Amino acid sequence: GVTSVQPGDHVIPLYIPQCNECKFCKSPKRIIGVDINPDKFELGKKFGLTEGVNPKDYNKPIQEVLVEMTDGGLDYTFECIGNVACMRAALESCHKGWGVSTIIGVAAAGQEISTRPFQLVTGRVWKGTAFGGWKSRESVPKLVDSYMNKKLLVDEFVSHNLNLDQINEAFDLMHAGKSVRTVVKL
Predict the structure, then answer these.
(1) What are 65-102's pLDDT values in tens digits?
(2) What does the pLDDT average to over 48-60?
(3) Which of 4, 24, 26, 34 is the most buried (most CB within 10 A)?
């Protein structure tokens, strides 16, 4: 998972800004964000992003682009939105022999992931995580403490504060890709 990332590793969170917050994503040499909404790249830079790539800018699969950009593939990838096609792309963006792809996003009910066995027998690792590996009972107090001491950024993810009577606007912002997280007040 995220705790095995070391300084100098090439990291790619797919899609931003759901990732990029932990200390492990803040120390690698290169953090490449992938998103179809280029407006997210500027926000991603607040959380350690070093460069952004939009799959729509290329006429080939994003995994091919990333393998070329990184001279063989990434050390770590993180799929954060729950899209099964992105999960596969994240795995195939990993370097053969040691690349690790971690699935963070939750796919819709009934969705299945697939890949060619060759992707795994060449040494790539595909795994998932819930809550970044944190254990709820023992970890929540640590997370709250980190937040209260400004070590864990949370408020920065809130892009809009709306009243309950504006809930349709909140959904419109989300569907248009113009919000990160919206707080709806009662």
Answers:
(1) 999 999 999 999 999 899 999 999 999 999 999 999 99
(2) 94
(3) 34
> Whats the size of the chain, residue-wise?
186
DSSP character string of 16-84: TTSS--STTTTSSSEEEEE-S-THHHHHHHHTT--EEE-GGG-SS-HHHHHHHHTTS-BSEEEE-S--H
Q: Is the dihedral of CA 156, 158, 159, 160 positive or negative?
A: negative
Q: What is the mean pLDDT of residues 48-68?
A: 95
Helix-strand-coil percent breakdown of the chain, rounded to 5?
35, 20, 45
Closest residue by Cα to residue 18 from 88, 98, 106? 106
Q: What is the pTM of this model?
A: 0.76
Rounded to the nearest 10°, the torsion over CA 58, 62, 65, 66 is 140
Q: Domain-by-domain residue ranges, the chain? A: 2-133, 136-185
Question: Does CATH place domain 2-133 in 3.30.930.10?
Answer: no
User: Does residue 61 surpass a pLDDT of 60?
Assistant: yes
